Amino acid sequence: MLGFGLAIEPQIWAVLFVMIRVGAAFITAPVFGAVSVPLPVRVSLAGAIAFLVLATHRVVPPPVIFSVTTILSVAAEASVGLALGLILQVAFAAPLVASELIGGSMGIGFASTIDPLNGRSSQALGQFFTVMLTLLFLSVDGHLVLVDTVVKSYDALPPGRAWMTAAQFREIAFFGGYAFFAGLLLALPVGFLLLCLNLVVGMMSRAAPALNLFAVGLPAALAVGVIALAIAFPAMGDYMLVIIREALAAAENLVLR
Predict the structure, then answer these.
(1) What sections of the protein cross the membrane (predicted)?
(2) β partners of residue 3
């Protein structure tokens, strides 16, 4: 029942109720939540997964839609979905942290354009890292693991008992710290070489005060940065895979522990 004398088909209401958690995860999760993904595609995917959940789980939605109990249940479902997607989105911020460190040291921090994945302005190097992380995420079936985690979450957190605890919110906050740590480690190979270059340029400026640092230091930093990126990118790609695995494991531990 909708309330106020209105009615709705129980099957349709069950599908819509399940779509809340799935849709909330798709809103915040990378790839699914990208600006380039049309809204009808997200709704269609959420509906298809909702049918899958109803086929494998016994979900009993609240009997009356317009009631306090239903509003609280909807808020709980949305919080679970948002938490799952947020953890992965936090992991995708690690390459942006690395790009800020590397780009600032290389002198290309001003090179920024609109990121097609999130619709915001970001550094060109950060977009490059984000695209590579997205491709790696898809290559290891991270999107399928996310869908599987959302479906399995109905076993650990069934509707009506899906409230997130303070410990779970604390895990999300701690994982945010891991994103900064991962970004620093991702930028470490190139950043260390650029730091050494800055030390050399600083000693040259002390030895030859008349030397134009902008004419020498900026081209040298750009050349060393590009060469270092080309050499270190295989290792950076391997560490991006570690970031993806850590994010997926954190999402699973959040709801399946």
Answers:
(1) 12-33, 39-57, 64-86, 92-112, 124-146, 178-201, 213-233
(2) 6
pTM: 0.80
Angle between the 166-207 and 68-91 helix axes, to the nearest 10 degrees? Answer: 30
CA distance 122 to 102: 14
The verdict on residue 202 lying in a domain is: yes
Structural domain includes residue 105: yes
Owner of token pair 């979450």: 153
4 is a domain residue: no
Tokens of 233: 């990118």
The vertex-237 CA angle with 234 and 241, nearest 5°, equals 145
Instruction: Tell me the three state secondary structure of residue 121.
Output: strand
- Give the Cα separation of 185 and 181 in Å (integer): 6
Question: Structural domain of residue 214, as residue ranges?
Answer: 10-256
User: pLDDT tens across 207-250, in order?
Assistant: 767 666 666 767 777 788 888 888 888 888 889 999 999 988 88
161 CB burial (10 A radius; 0-12, 13-18, 19+)? exposed
Quick: pLDDT tens for 71-105: 888 888 888 888 888 888 888 888 888 888 887 77
How far is residue 49's CA from residue 147's CA, in Å, rounded to a whole number? 8
